[in-house]
Every structure is written in C-alpha cells, then in structure tokens.
Amino acid sequence: MKPAKPLALALIAVAVSLTACQNREKRQRELAYVERPVEQLYNQAGRELDQHDYETAILLFNEVERQHPYSEWARKAMVMTAYAHYQRHDYDETISAAQRYISLHPGGSEAAYAYYLIAISQFEQIVDVGRDQGMTVQTKASLQDVLRRFPDSKYARDAQVKLDMVNDQLAGKEMEVGRWYLRSNQTLAAINRFRTVVKEYDETSHSEEALYRLVEAYLSLGMRPQATEAAATLGYNYPDSDWYRMAYQLMTSEGIMMDTSAPKRTLLQKLIPGGK
C-alpha cells in the first residue's frame, strides 16, 4: 500500500531540516578549530554577507566575538550579526542581537544603527488595520526612540518617514473601529475613537474623515454646538475637501450656519475637552 502523500512530504521536510542542522553544526565545528587574525575573520564574514550567504556570515561574525572578545571588531560584529539576521528576515533574532549590543555597549558608535535595526524589524512585521495593532504600537515607540536619541543620525530621516506611516496606520485602526461603532449605533464610543484621531493623529490622511464622522455622530445625538465646531474645524483646515462639502450639506440640511473664521487651535480646544 502506498504511503499517504502528506506523510511522505513531512518525512522529506524532516530529512531536509536534519541535513541543514547537521551542515550548520559541521560548519560551526570547522570554524571553532580555526584560529585566525581578527581582521581576516571579519573581512571573510563581510564577503559572505556580500554574497548573500547570511548563515555563514553570522557564524563568522560570532567567531570574531568568540576569538577576539575585547576587540573593536567584536563590537562591530555584534551589529553585523543583527544585520545578517535582518537580511534573512529573522526579525526576532535581529531584535535580540541588536538589544544585546545595546545592553553591552549603550554608548557605542553603532548604537544608533542597533536601535534603528530594532525599529525596522518591527516595522516589517506590521499587519493590516483589520488585525491587532500591537506590533504597530511597539514600532512607534522604537522609531520615536531612534528620533529622540539620535536626531542628527543618518537614520533619523527614514525613521521619521516610517513614523508618519505608523501614525497613519494607527489612525486607520481608530477609524475602522469608530465606523463599526457608528454602524452599530454605539455613537458615544464612536465619538471617542474619532476624537482620538483628531487629537493624536491630526496630521494623518484620516483627520478629514474623522472630523466629518464627528459631525455625523454629534448631529445624530442632537449635539448641535459640538457638530458645528467639528464642521467649522473641517472647513477651516480642509476647505476644498469632499468631506467638508458633505459636512456642509449635512449641516445646512439641519438649518445650521457655520463660521469657519476661528483659528484651528481654538476650534480644537472646544472640540477636545481639556485641549491646550
């Protein structure tokens, strides 16, 4: 009787995995018994990295640390190990290696890059707004860490670009939940979500819609002054947007006239309790 295909495939996968592990262990044993000058080891690791043999590069960078633990090359090898893991898309290993460097050399010349590697490894794992945004929140904190600690580094600009993308993602999640609350007639809960977007993510692409949704929500509750403030803020800041045109039509259909001459800061103070 022929074995089932899934079982055959599973056996092949196990065999391949075992072979890979054996080859890795063999290479580790070979490296362990070859003492070499630090520059030679480090440069060989760099060559393997350039040839995209990341696994061998990692082994060689580890050997730099093992054979020459107190050298400047060992410190650099730690960060390069993290980078090699990143190139393999082994993000957990990247973060672990970068954090190890930071814990041992917090003031090292490669610290900025170590922090940056942590942030971009988390960034690469962000999922769409329909799913949990825990990783997005972690990424935001890590990118802010890069900008706060190393504002003049060569990584700061990219960190800022990615932070803007992360904020847009988080705002998108708030909007998704807010719309769901609005459709479910949980209007107060929806208002809280939309106000969060206006207050914390006002520079994202979602702020216009958030203001319009606030107009909708406030009017549905009969809160005409709050609806007026939200519509006026929308009109003052986005006078040419489709969201403002819809808000204007909605307000005028309720017989409400708006004054858009007040500055944004004052309007946001009225819209967000406790605003400064």
From TrEMBL:
Gene3D superfamilies: Tetratricopeptide repeat domain (1.25.40.10). GO terms for cellular component: Bam protein complex. Its main location: membrane. SUPFAM superfamilies: TPR-like. InterPro entries: BamD (IPR017689), BamD-like (IPR039565), TPR-like_helical_dom_sf (IPR011990). CDD domains: BamD. Keywords: Cell outer membrane, Lipoprotein, Membrane, Palmitate, Signal. The keyword Signal applies. It is a lipid-anchor. It comes from the Bacteria. One of its GO terms (biological process) is protein insertion into membrane. It holds the Pfam family YfiO. It is found in: Cell outer membrane. Part of the outer membrane protein assembly complex, which is involved in assembly and insertion of beta-barrel proteins into the outer membrane. Belongs to the BamD family. Part of the Bam complex. This is Outer membrane protein assembly factor BamD. It comes from Hyphomonas jannaschiana VP2.
